[in-house]
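#struct-help
A.M.: can someone run this one for me? Single chain, 179 residues.
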Amino acid sequence: MADPIDEPAGNATGSMAGMAPGRHAGVPRYKRILVPTDRSDVSAVAEHAAVEFARVHGAEIVALSVAQTYPAYAAAEAAMAVDPNLASEALRGWAERNVRRVSAAAAGAGVACTPLTVFSHSASDAILDSARDHGCDLIFMGSHGRRGLSRLLAGSETQKVLAGAEVPVMVLRPRPGSA
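D.P.: on it. Structure tokens below:
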């Protein structure tokens, strides 16, 4: 008996002709995929894979870039006034450039894409909130694949997303030496 994942529903020959994209027996149908991006080489691997996955499965993408804000600390020695609006506009511009890259790749593949930029102190919280708020049924993201002390010291936004996600999370890492 054929594996139901490999066999298209309603077609004993195994041909994909006439099948809607993503319609395989036993395979979940993803409709909206959240793709967080920070323009790193690591996120680029996930972006390209997510666009192809969405194209093949007939899904749309929500491209997310988190403009990660940090609390302002005033130093007693500081004599310079900083305009927080300038920092916010720079972060917003950076985040918008990030999602434009994903949007352009999606458009080139014929995949619908909603660009989304948010301000947050926590990238993982923003990813989880965005997935829920935008009805995403899959999160597709990159990871450096740090282990041990490196992960402990650097933290892992991917690990936090995996721990808190209410939907499946696809995690991709670049091949060793490629990023």
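A.M.: thanks! The longest helix spans residues 84-108.
D.P.: also worth noting: Confidence is low (pLDDT under 50) at residues 1-22, 150-154.
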